[in-house]
Amino acid sequence: MNFSYFATTQRGIEAIAAQELERLGVKEVRPDFTGVHFIGDRTTLYRVNLWARTIFKVLVPIQEFYCPNSDILYQEVQKITWDEYLKPNNTLAVHCTGGNQKLNHTHFTALQVKNAIVDQQREKSGQRSSVDLQNPDLTINVHIHQDRCTLSLDSSGTSLHRRGYRQAMGTAPLKETLAAALLDIAEWDTNLPFLDPFCGSGTLPIEAALKALNIAPGLFRQKFGFQNFPDFDPQLWQQLLAEAQNSRLSKLPTLIWGSDRDPNVLAQARSNAQRCGIEHQIKLAQTELSQLEAPADCGVIVCNPPYGERIGETKELGILYKMLGDVFKQRFKGWTAFVLTGNKELAKKVGLKAARRIPVYNGALACTLLKYELY
């Protein structure tokens, strides 16, 4: 039996996420603002949670209704038979996005939905679910858009960007989902050498290695939200986990490097790589940018140098960006480089003509991914 699902994404990478879902064999994929609609059965739901690299969550819509104000919201939520999804001994959390003129405070909207659910439970059984914001048995997503409300069950639990391998983080880490999306935007062929000269705690080289070794990112997670659904099929889930384990490659088809000047963040990168079991597959080295040399005749660079939002001063970073352009030009002939930056003035300091300028959001920050073809 097929159902409608909605995969949430970082703004701006909806088309990339849609392409990824299509590669996973998903049908009727339709990108929307900050997400992708798709159709599938229970196997599809489990597989997307296990394998998708670029999405945050998979929501399972259960009801959509006219919702101009809080009273109607409460009434409509009460019409749903909640014991199909939630027992009084289960914990719950309600998260809200969007709003309209009368429902313009997400916390209040979430509270109204929670009240409608637990009031129904009390009326039926005299007992009610308690709220657990950290580790609930069931997370309900409420989305208000104009005068419509969509209620969904969260099949993922914690955001899928939290792979489970990254215990250690640098000062301004990329989310794993965005790192994976950048690799797709760069159209990186996993047979080509890969380098990140500002690797920090290792997110880009690790995500590149997981992709090249065909390792499902969900294998590092302890739990998914759908495992608490009443219709959870443990046998099917074990089968999909076994398939994912068996499809891992034992050796990278090419070399993947990460370097950084800071030995402390490199120690974090090594620790994160170790948790993935790939510490002997990728090369992580402490290297000053001025000392950086091309490790192969050709390859792809994807990097996220600091851009003055949270680290360092713009003036000092201007020198860094100029050096980056010089190093690319002098030592990386035959390579293609992609530089993510949120600072247009710094981007000019690279001093190279960009072949493409791709708009990308890093969280709420509007950035540009600059492509340089190095001849």
Core attributes:
seven-stranded mixed beta sheet, 14 strands, 375 residues, SAM-dependent_MTases_sf, VC0802-like, Rossmann fold, alpha/beta, 10 helices
Describe what you observe in this structure.
- With 375 residues, the protein is of the alpha/beta class.
- It folds into two domains: 3-154, VC0802-like, CATH 3.30.2130.30; 176-214 and 251-373, Vaccinia Virus protein VP39 (Rossmann fold), CATH 3.40.50.
- The protein is built from ten helices and 14 strands.
- Helix 9 links the parallel strand 11 (299-303) and strand 12.
- Helix 2 crosses helix 7, helix 3 (70-78) packs parallel to helix 4 (106-125) and helix 5 (176-185) crosses helix 6 (203-212).
- The longest helix is centred in the first third of the chain and has 20 residues, at 106-125.
- The protein is elongated and about 75 Å long.
- The relative contact order is 0.11.
